[in-house]
Amino acid sequence: MRFLLFALLTPHLSQHDNTPQEAHDGVCNKVIPAVIEKHVLTALSYYPELRETEIHFVFTRRLKKSVMAARPVIGSLFKKREKRAYNILINPVFKLEHSFESVRQIPEDVFIGWIGHELGHIMDYERRSTWGIIGFGLSYWLSKKYVRKAERVADSFAVNRGMGEYLLATKSFILDHSKLPQAYKAKIEALYLSPDDIVELVTELESEDKDKKEEMLAAEEKVVREAEAELHEEQLDKEKQPDN
């Protein structure tokens, strides 16, 4: 529910423009603040499948526990799949233990890796039906086990498209940052691929051909689908239990 309400209440457009527009290098239907355009276009270049997908990159202080988050625009979910739109929300600051730092001070490769991960989520959404996305939102809110699996899928999409080094830079930046709150580092360690996991996945992907890569990615997605089914069964069991 929180996922759905957040997506519903999130502004559809960036404050910098009113309509989707064609960016540089043939990237269409994107709204990108000028200050991060270079980094965003670099990340998008690894996702040719998203060339025509409408994505708005929006600075917002509404994100309280994350630096970035990918959300579908709720109204677009009831249109044809090719007409869907998404927001990638970006907190303009991230919280340190005793201060705040502008997201613009994040190193270039780290920022690109962060965007690449969120684009991985959009790739995951694109393969789902409308009700599948709604189910994803509910499961993500209700189950930490599901969150771990969903975040692995997003990382896998990015690694599969050649962004392994960027993801490593992002993870290392977070885990090695001396001033980031320990609670945030613990969350990243618990829910996301570790640097060692990313290196292992990169090595596996580099040794496989294209068809095998797609099989590996499909296996990752299957794990998430199984988690959804397991969560659904748990909810049904609870509903069947008599009230005390």
Structure description:
The protein is an alpha/beta fold and 244 residues long. It has one domain. The protein is built from nine helices and six strands; from the N terminus they run H-E-H-E-E-E-E-E-H-H-H-H-H-H-H. The protein has helices at residues 2-9, 37-44, 108-126, 130-142, 144-160, 164-176, 182-191, 195-206, 210-240; strands at residues 30-31, 54-59, 68-72, 85-90, 93-95, 100-102. The chain has a four-stranded mixed β-sheet with strand order 1-2-4-3, sandwiched between helices. It has a two-stranded antiparallel sheet with strand order 5-6. A hairpin with a 4-residue loop joins strand 5 and strand 6 (100-102). Helix 2 packs across helix 3, helix 4 packs across helix 5 (144-160) and helix 6 (164-176) runs antiparallel to helix 8. The longest helix has 31 residues, at 210-240. The protein is globular. 32% of the residues are buried. The model is unreliable at 1-23 (pLDDT under 50).
